[in-house]
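Technical annex B. To support the medicinal chemistry partners, we prepared a structural model of the target in complex with zinc ion, based solely on the information shown next.
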Amino acid sequence: MALREILVVPHPVLKQVSANVDVVDDDLRALMDDMLETMYDAPGIGLAAIQIGVPKRVIVMDLARPDEEPQPRYYVNPEILWASEETAPYEEGCLSVPEIFDEVERPARVKLRYLNYQGEQVEEDAEGLFAVCIQHEMDHLNGVLFIDHLSRLKREQAVKKVKKLVKAA
Ligand code: K1U
Ligand code: ZN
């Protein structure tokens, strides 16, 4: 396993649309292992492959609380089959937009289809933080960042702050 660099705004690769995966094989599982290690190290609760510069439709996540055992989750080629009309706000963050947090409104519940770590097809309902996080990560697969859901002014301010942060590091 290896730690990978997480790209931050305004890196142009973050705007790319990721491609579907043909087969879940050992090479893809090695990528998912690297992503999980990188996410735990950051630390974060989710990560899309494009955030480490790999334009594949792959997401890792762990929503376990600090007092719980790790619960790694893997989503390959995820699709949203259904989204509730009801929406819910959540104060989101993003490892590619460090130190910026703002409220985004998204469908409160979604039904998903994806391939798991073994390449098996799974259908699952998501609500609460799981629904927020999977929609945030699936946005990454389409080149969309949570700041794209904010006003142009807030988005530009966020990018400016991150540029300053990177320069000072
Ligand atoms: O960059 C990312 O996509 C990961 C992002 C996921 C996310 C967080 C909150 C709402 C929607 C999506 C993060 O993990 S940001 C960091 C974070 O939330 C966190 C870090 C340490 C402990 C707990 C949370
Ligand atoms: Zn993100």
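Notes passed to the chemistry partners:
The longest strand covers residues 73-83.
The helical segments are 26-41, 128-141, 152-168.
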